[in-house]
Specification:
heterodimer, A: mainly alpha
């Protein structure tokens, strides 16, 4: 779940009868489980919404390199270092597929990048939290990638073809990421006293922010209703959050760790765990730029972009010279 | 003989370890997404090669040390990497120039090691050479592209070359360890790799419009471990902190 609080037209969902023939054909195709492809007609709102959603997802992959990159140079073994490098490389790759998917909607990667760097476009709130110990690499893989998978698996069936296809590839890699995260947690939780303490501390710090990744309840949101009608959002935020909690609690028990929620308990009647909502005030603070690492994350991305300007310019200039030389030779 | 072989394997493994670490420092900070991916990929290859070299070194030593023990529990004086690879990343141009200067040597070293009398070394060299062929290709293209790009990129690449050139000579010097390797048919005489190296550099620098420095002075002390730069200690402080802070832990 790397896209949060995506706003759609806000006009509410039209019925088929209210639509012009073109839009009705579009909606009927979606209803029948068909895919929309880049050259097909689509409502402006659908296009804009998708650009925001895919763009935010791509940005999250890019910014998401930073909290994990923070530990690559301090990984405890050569194997862990290699796995973490491979994972972060995958994330940059996901960013690349997603930017490509967004480009099919008529926006450029440079434009999206500028909007990220200026703060106009957001990335997932989760990446504004710091990674403080090696156990955080476990918690990020287990909980953060785990939460992402909850949302991304259904998105493999999303209505927009390029997005759905990117998601198929991404999901395969994300499930490897989650497994490696859980594997780190297993080692830590079964390790020395200090390691177990690190593991519990990481769970304590990441549990709430992971629950926030699904966004606030959207049962009554017109934005969500429209996105669901367009099949660019497949489940409500609460549904996904519940599914996530139901899956994580037994995993935490297996690790011998305690989920930091005193009111967490199995509800026989509902067939789900009852749990405490995360601190939504904190969530909105993070969204407003006041998370523990918002400024560092954006500053790091801006610095990388600014410091890299001469490289991009240099390579472009060289490519132009080569093209000119080739033309002159023809 | 086994002492010399251990030293030689540490040289190979420490080069890839230290350079892999340096390259991994870029993660998330590269000039463009494709470069982030390529840098991570290069670092990943180098760390993988490190495991092969240092595991074999540990085996040859026979003191129960594996690659992790060697990587994370030796101090500066125990490291046998070239001074070139421990140099800080600097800007992207410096990183890629360092990569190019190293890769050009590394590939010809690996190609020669594929004929090693030691079959384990030949096997590692063969696997590594496939990866390093790509590293060299990419580094070459980047050095040419930025050397022959804008005025700024050209100046930065020339500055990077001037700065790193004094660390090139060390790759081609022969010492007792190398001599023992040559005698045993394990590794080539370092000096024998120089003519092809110079020829490649001449071609690439001509295309990149860069000027090779005239002074062939070369700093020594990395591969012998006698005098590393101050940079290595700081790198190890970061790289080895966790293992040393929690020596009883397995990860």
């Amino acid at each position: 779940m790397y896209a949060q609080m995506i706003k759609s037209t806000g006009e509410g969902v039209k019925s088929l009868d209210e639509m012009e023939p073109q839009e009705r054909a579009f909606q009927e195709r979606i209803n029948a489980g068909g895919k929309i492809e880049p050259k097909d007609w689509m409502p402006d709102g659908y296009r804009k919404n998708l650009i925001r959603q895919i763009g935010q997802h791509a940005h999250s992959e890019i910014v998401g390199q930073l909290p994990e990159g923070n530990w690559i140079t301090r990984a405890p073994t050569l194997e862990r270092k290699a796995i973490l490098l491979a994972k972060v490389q995958d994330e940059a790759g996901h960013g690349l597929y997603l930017y490509c998917a967004a480009e099919t909607l008529g926006v450029t990667r440079d434009q999206l990048t500028r909007d990220l760097l200026s703060g106009k476009m957001k990335y997932s709130s989760i990446f504004n939290y710091p990674t403080l110990t090696w156990a955080d690499m476990g918690a990020v893989g287990w909980l953060v990638d785990g939460a992402a998978i909850m949302n991304q698996v259904p998105l493999q069936r999303t209505s927009y073809g390029p997005y759905a296809r990117a998601m198929v590839r991404i999901c395969k890699e994300e499930s490897f990421h989650q497994r490696q995260g859980y594997d780190i947690m297993m080692k830590m939780a079964k390790g020395t006293k200090a390691q177990k303490k690190m593991a519990q501390d990481a769970l304590n710090r990441f549990w709430g922010p992971a629950l926030m990744m699904f966004g606030p309840s959207d049962e009554n949101s017109v934005h969500s209703a429209q996105s669901m009608a367009w099949k660019i959002k497949m489940n409500s935020n609460d549904e996904l959050r519940q599914k996530f909690v139901d899956e994580c609690v037994p995993q935490a028990e297996y690790l011998g760790l305690t989920v930091p929620d005193p009111d967490l308990k199995w509800n026989e009647e509902r067939g789900h765990y009852d749990f405490t909502q995360p601190d939504w005030d904190e969530f909105f603070d993070v969204l407003r730029g006041n998370g523990p690492c918002n400024k560092e994350r954006l500053a790091a991305r801006n610095k990388a972009w600014d410091d890299g300007a001469w490289v991009r310019d240099g390579l472009m200039a060289h490519a132009a010279k080569k093209r000119a030389a080739k033309l002159a030779a023809e | 003989m086994s002492d010399n072989l251990f030293e030689f394997l540490c040289r190979m493994g420490d080069n890839t370890l230290v350079l892999g670490h340096r390259v991994s420092e870029w993660c998330g900070h590269a000039p463009v997404l494709e470069e982030d991916i390529a840098l991570a990929n290069t670092a990943l290859d180098l760390i993988g090669q490190t495991t092969l070299w240092l595991d074999l070194a540990g085996e040859v030593e026979g003191a129960g040390r594996d690659a992790d023990k060697l990587a994370f529990h030796r101090d500066v004086w125990g490291f046998r990497n070239l001074l070139l690879v421990e140099q800080p990343n600097g800007d992207f141009g410096q990183t890629m120039m360092r990569q190019f200067l190293f890769d050009a040597w590394h590939l010809s070293q690996l190609n020669a090691l594929m004929d090693s009398s030691n079959t384990q070394i030949a096997a590692i060299a063969e696997k590594s050479a496939k990866e390093v062929t790509y590293h060299l290709e990419r580094a070459t293209e980047t050095v040419i592209g930025l050397g022959d790009g804008t005025e700024e990129s050209h100046n930065r690449m020339q500055a990077a070359l001037d700065k790193l050139w004094p660390y090139v000579g060390e790759m081609f010097t022969l010492d007792d360890v190398d001599a023992a390797m040559v005698d045993a048919g394990i590794a080539p005489d370092p000096a024998s790799l120089r003519p092809a190296y110079d020829a490649l550099l001449d071609d690439v620098f001509a295309a990149a419009t860069l000027t090779k420095p005239q002074d062939d002075f070369g700093h020594q002390g990395g591969k012998s471990g006698k005098r590393h730069s101050e940079h290595l200690g700081h790198m190890l402080a970061q790289m080895q902190w966790l293992q040393r802070a929690y020596p009883d832990a397995t990860w």
